Backbone:
C-alpha cells in the first residue's frame, strides 16, 4: 500500500489500509471537515493519467451517486490531490459476502434476505441505465445488522487491459471500453456474452448474480476450473451441477430462479431485473418460517416432519404483458406436496395442450423456433414430441372417442386474439375435414359429436353450442369455451375490451341463460372443468398479470387452489393438470440512419415504440407492463444503442420536431402532458371539454399539435391545438377522422390521414376543407408515414408477421413493396403491432410481441 497512516488526500486523513485490487487501493480515512470515517479508493496512476478514462469514470461515479439506494454504497465525493485521483465512499462495517460464504452454504432463512437486497439494488441501478459488469462476492458487503451494500459500480468498465492469461478464476478481466470483442468482468462470475467478448446489458448482471446465489446456496462455485481459460470455456459450454444435487435443502423455487439466471442465452433470463427481485421476494414471503428453519436445523439423516410439508412454494417469473414460473403459497392440511414436471424444452409459443382419452398421451399445438403452428403428440418422461400429420394446425379439443378439433392456419388478428379454420380429424391420423372459418376456440361436448365454438366473423366474437346455435355475443372477445361434463352448459371467459385479457368467468346454458361466476379479473387466461366435474378451474389475477389458480362452482362459490403463475391448459380425469409457463414481452427493434443491421432497442418487458425523430437518431417509446409498475413509463433512446433515458410516467405519443419535448398521456388517456427531454418542467395542456385522447402528434412547425379525441357528450373527432395556450379547435365533424391508428401528418403540415367515414382512409385538411379519400389501400392497411417529398404514403397492416410496408404514390395510385420487418430471433413472435420510420426511409423501428412457453405436468393439486 502506497499511503501511510497520517497521510493526507485533501481534507481526508488516512487511518489504515483496507485492501487493494486491480482498480486501486482502499483505505480507511477520516473526513476532517465532518469528523466522520469514510472509505477512500485511490485509483491507479495509469487511470489518473488518462484524461479520457478519468472523465468516463467521473461520469459513471456521478450516475451511481445519484441512485440513492440503501443497498448501493453511497459515494460522497470524487477528488484529486497530490496527483492522485480518488473516490470517497461511506465506510461499511461488516464482512464481504466472500468472507461469509467461506463458512459454508447459507441456510435459506439467511440466504433469501441477502439475495433480495442484492437484486433490489441491482434492479434500481438497471432502471437508471447502469450495469455493474463485475458482480462477485468480494463486491458485496454484509453489515453487522444484515444490510447489504453493493460496491464498485462501473469500475469494471474502466479496469486496465493488462490481465495475465494465467491468472486465477477470481481475477478481474477488464477493458477500457464496452465494445464487442472486449472482455469485461471477473472470470468465474462473468456471463457467457462477457466471456465471448460480446456487448452486454443488464442481463449479464443477472447471470453474475445467479453465480453468486449458486455459491452461497451450495458452498461451491458454479464454474470454477483449474485455469481462467478453462473457467471461461465452462461458462460458455457447461452446465453447473444442479443446485438440488449439491444441496437438497435449497427451496425448489430458489433453484428455479438460480437456473434461470444462469441460462446461457440472455433471452432466457429475466425480462427485467425488477421481476427477478420480485420473484426472490415471493420465495422469501411465501415459504413458511417453519419450512425455512426446518431446512436449516434438520439433521441430514432424519426425515422431515409432516408439518414441513404444509406449504406449496414456487415462484413468479413474468415479462411484461405475462408469466414465466410458478409461485405457490402455504396450504393447510397434510396433503402431499404437488409435483411439477417440465415436458417441453424447445423455444416457441404453445397455443393449447390437451390430454388424450387415455390420460397419458398429450397433444399440443405449438409454434416452435419461428415456424408456423403445428400439432404434436408426446408422453410424459419422453422429451421428444411427434408431429401429427396435419400441416399448420393447432389442437383445440379431443373428443372421448379420439377425434381432434383442430385450427388450420391460426393467425393473430389482435393482441391475444387469433383465429383460423376449424377442421376435424382422427388422433390416429387421416385427412382433415374443414368445417368452419374464423374460429378462435372450440370444445367437444361429452357426446363426442357436438362442438362448442367461438367464432369471429367480421371480428365480432360469438359463442355457439352446438355449431350454428348462438348463445352469446361479446362486445369484446371470447376465449376458452369448455363444455360441462353433463353437456348442459358452457363455461367461458368474456373479455369486454378488444386487445386486453381482462375479463369475467361466465356460464351459459343451452337456452342462452347466462350467469357471471367470477370477476372482473385484471388478467384471466386458461379454463377447464375439474376432474370430478363439480368446479371450473381457471387462472387469473386481480392486479397485473400474475395469475393464480382458482376454482369456482356453478353456484358461484370460489376458492384459491394455488398461488401460481401460468396458464391452465387442461385437467385430466385422474386430476393431473397441464399448465404453460409463459414469458410474454414486447420487444423493440430498429436501425439508425443508413444502418443495414437492426439493433434490439428493448428496455424493460414491454417496449412499445411511438415515434422516431426525423433524422432517425432518437426513439420515443413507453413501457406499459410489469416493468413500469403498471403506471406506464416514457423513455427516449438514441439509435446508436445508448441507454434509454426515462422522461416520466405515462404513455408516449409523439416527439417534437426539435426533439425537446415528448407529448404523452396517462394510462387512461385523460389528458395530454408535455415532458421535457432535457432541462425543463412538465406542462399539462389545456383540455377544455375533451374527455379522452385517442391519438396525438406534432405539426411540423412544432408550435401546434393535432389529436383525435372525444369531448364530453360527443363522438371523437380530429382537433388542432396551439401549444401557446387556448382550447382545441375541431377540424372534422363528430365521429369523423378519429381513431387510435392510421394518422400521419404531411411534411408541409397541410394534411393528416385518418379513418374515412365509411371505409378506408382519407386526407383531412388541417386548416379546414373537404377531405379526399386515399385510394390504393389493401384491406386492413393503415398509413404510417409520409415520404419526404409529400408525394407518397407508407402503409402497413398491424399485427401481420412479417410486417410488410408498402409505398403508395398518391398521384397515380401505384404501390410497391418497400420493406419487410421481422426479428432475427423468430421464436415465439406472435405479432408486429407498431411501426415507425423516417420520411426518407433511412431509419425505422417496430415493436414485436413475443410469447415463449414451457409446458408443465402438475400432480397433487386439489
Residues:
Amino acid at each position: 500500500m502506497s499511503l501511510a497512516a497520517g497521510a493526507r488526500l485533501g481534507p481526508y486523513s488516512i487511518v489504515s489500509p483496507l485492501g487493494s485490487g486491480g482498480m486501486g487501493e482502499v483505505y480507511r480515512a477520516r473526513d476532517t471537515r465532518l469528523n466522520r470515517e469514510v472509505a477512500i479508493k485511490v485509483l491507479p496512476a495509469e487511470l489518473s493519467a488518462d484524461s479520457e478514462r478519468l472523465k468516463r469514470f467521473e461520469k459513471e461515479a456521478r450516475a451511481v451517486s445519484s441512485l440513492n439506494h440503501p443497498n448501493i454504497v453511497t459515494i460522497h465525493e470524487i477528488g484529486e490531490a497530490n496527483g492522485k485521483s480518488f473516490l470517497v465512499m461511506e465506510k461499511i462495517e461488516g464482512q464481504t459476502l466472500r468472507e461469509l460464504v467461506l463458512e459454508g452454504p447459507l441456510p435459506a432463512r439467511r440466504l433469501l434476505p441477502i439475495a433480495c437486497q442484492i437484486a433490489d439494488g441491482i434492479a434500481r441501478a438497471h432502471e437508471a441505465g447502469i450495469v455493474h459488469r463485475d458482480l462477485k462476492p468480494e463486491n458485496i458487503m454484509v453489515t453487522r445488522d444484515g444490510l447489504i451494500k453493493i460496491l464498485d459500480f462501473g469500475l469494471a468498465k474502466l479496469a486496465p487491459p493488462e490481465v495475465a492469461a494465467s491468472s486465477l478464476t477470481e481475477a478481474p478481466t477488464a477493458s477500457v471500453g464496452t465494445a464487442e470483442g472486449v472482455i469485461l468482468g471477473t472470470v468465474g462470475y462473468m456471463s457467457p456474452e462477457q466471456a465471448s467478448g460480446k456487448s452486454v446489458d443488464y442481463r449479464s448482471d443477472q447471470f453474475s448474480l445467479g453465480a453468486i446465489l449458486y455459491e452461497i446456496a451450495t458452498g461451491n462455485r458454479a464454474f470454477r476450473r483449474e485455469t481462467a481459460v478453462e473457467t471461461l470455456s465452462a461458462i460458455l459450454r457447461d452446465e453447473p451441477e444442479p443446485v438440488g444435487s449439491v444441496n437438497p435443502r435449497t427451496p425448489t423455487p430458489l433453484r428455479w430462479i438460480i437456473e434461470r439466471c444462469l441460462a446461457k442465452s440472455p433471452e432466457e433470463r429475466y425480462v427485467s431485473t425488477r421481476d427477478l427481485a420480485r420473484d426472490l421476494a415471493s420465495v422469501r414471503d411465501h415459504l413458511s418460517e417453519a419450512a425455512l428453519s426446518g431446512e436449516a436445523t434438520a439433521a441430514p439423516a432424519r426425515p422431515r416432519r409432516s408439518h414441513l410439508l404444509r406449504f406449496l412454494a414456487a415462484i413468479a417469473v413474468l415479462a411484461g404483458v405475462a408469466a414465466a414460473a410458478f409461485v405457490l403459497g402455504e396450504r393447510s392440511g397434510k396433503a402431499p406436496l404437488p409435483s411439477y414436471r417440465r415436458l417441453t424444452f424447445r423455444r416457441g409459443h404453445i397455443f393449447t395442450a390437451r390430454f388424450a382419452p387415455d390420460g397419458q398421451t398429450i397433444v399440443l399445438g405449438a409454434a416452435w423456433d419461428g415456424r408456423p403452428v403445428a400439432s404434436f403428440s408426446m408422453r410424459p418422461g419422453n422429451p421428444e414430441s411427434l408431429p401429427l400429420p396435419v400441416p399448420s394446425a393447432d389442437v383445440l379439443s379431443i373428443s372421448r372417442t379420439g377425434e381432434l378439433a383442430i385450427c388450420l392456419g391460426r393467425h393473430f388478428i389482435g393482441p391475444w386474439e387469433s383465429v383460423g379454420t376449424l377442421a376435424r380429424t382422427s388422433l390416429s391420423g387421416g385427412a382433415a375435414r374443414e368445417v368452419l372459418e374464423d374460429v378462435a376456440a372450440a370444445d367437444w361436448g361429452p357426446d363426442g359429436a357436438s362442438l362448442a365454438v367461438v367464432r369471429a366473423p367480421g371480428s365480432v366474437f360469438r359463442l355457439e353450442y352446438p355449431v350454428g346455435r348462438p348463445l352469446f355475443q361479446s362486445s369484446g372477445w371470447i376465449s376458452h369455451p369448455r363444455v360441462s361434463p353433463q353437456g348442459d352448459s358452457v363455461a367461458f371467459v368474456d373479455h369486454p375490451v378488444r386487445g386486453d385479457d381482462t375479463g369475467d368467468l361466465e356460464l351459459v346454458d343451452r337456452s342462452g341463460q347466462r350467469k357471471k361466476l367470477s370477476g372482473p379479473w385484471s388478467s384471466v387466461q386458461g379454463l377447464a372443468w375439474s376432474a370430478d366435474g363439480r368446479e371450473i378451474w381457471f387462472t387469473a389475477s386481480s392486479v397485473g398479470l400474475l395469475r393464480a389458480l382458482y376454482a369456482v362452482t356453478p353456484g358461484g362459490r370460489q376458492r384459491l387452489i394455488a398461488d401460481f403463475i401460468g396458464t391452465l391448459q387442461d385437467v385430466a380425469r385422474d386430476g393431473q393438470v397441464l399448465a404453460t409457463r409463459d414469458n410474454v414481452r414486447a420487444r423493440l427493434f430498429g436501425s439508425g440512419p443508413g444502418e443495414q443491421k437492426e439493433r434490439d432497442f428493448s428496455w424493460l418487458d414491454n417496449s412499445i415504440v411511438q415515434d422516431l425523430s426525423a433524422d432517425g437518431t432518437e426513439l420515443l417509446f413507453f413501457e406499459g407492463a410489469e416493468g413500469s409498475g403498471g403506471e406506464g413509463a416514457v423513455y427516449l433512446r438514441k439509435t446508436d444503442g445508448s441507454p434509454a433515458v426515462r422522461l416520466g410516467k405515462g404513455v408516449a405519443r409523439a416527439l417534437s420536431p426539435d426533439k425537446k419535448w415528448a407529448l404523452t398521456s396517462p394510462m387512461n388517456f385523460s389528458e395530454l402532458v408535455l415532458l421535457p427531454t432535457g432541462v425543463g418542467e412538465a406542462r399539462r395542456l389545456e383540455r377544455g371539454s375533451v374527455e379522452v385522447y385517442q391519438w396525438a402528434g406534432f405539426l411540423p412547425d412544432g408550435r401546434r399539435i393535432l389529436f383525435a379525441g372525444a369531448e364530453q357528450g360527443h363522438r371523437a373527432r380530429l382537433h388542432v391545438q396551439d401549444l401557446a395556450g387556448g382550447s382545441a379547435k375541431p377540424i372534422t365533424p363528430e365521429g369523423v377522422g378519429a381513431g387510435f391508428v392510421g394518422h400521419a401528418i404531411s411534411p408541409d403540415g397541410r394534411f393528416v390521414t385518418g379513418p374515412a367515414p365509411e371505409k378506408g382512409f382519407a386526407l383531412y385538411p388541417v386548416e379546414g376543407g373537404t377531405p379526399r379519400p386515399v385510394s390504393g389501400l389493401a384491406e386492413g392497411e393503415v398509413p404510417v408515414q409520409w415520404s419526404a417529398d409529400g408525394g407518397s404514403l407508407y402503409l402497413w397492416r398491424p399485427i401481420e408477421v412479417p410486417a410488410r410496408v408498402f409505398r403508395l404514390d398518391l398521384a397515380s395510385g401505384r404501390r410497391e413493396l418497400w420493406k419487410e420487418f421481422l426479428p432475427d430471433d423468430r421464436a415465439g413472435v406472435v405479432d408486429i403491432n407498431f411501426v415507425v420510420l423516417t420520411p426518407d426511409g433511412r431509419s425505422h423501428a417496430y415493436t414485436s410481441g413475443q410469447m415463449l412457453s414451457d409446458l408443465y405436468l402438475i400432480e397433487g393439486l386439489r
Observations:
- The mean pLDDT is 84.
- The chain has four domains: 8-90, 95-297, 343-584+852-859, 623-850.
- The chain has eleven helices and 55 strands.
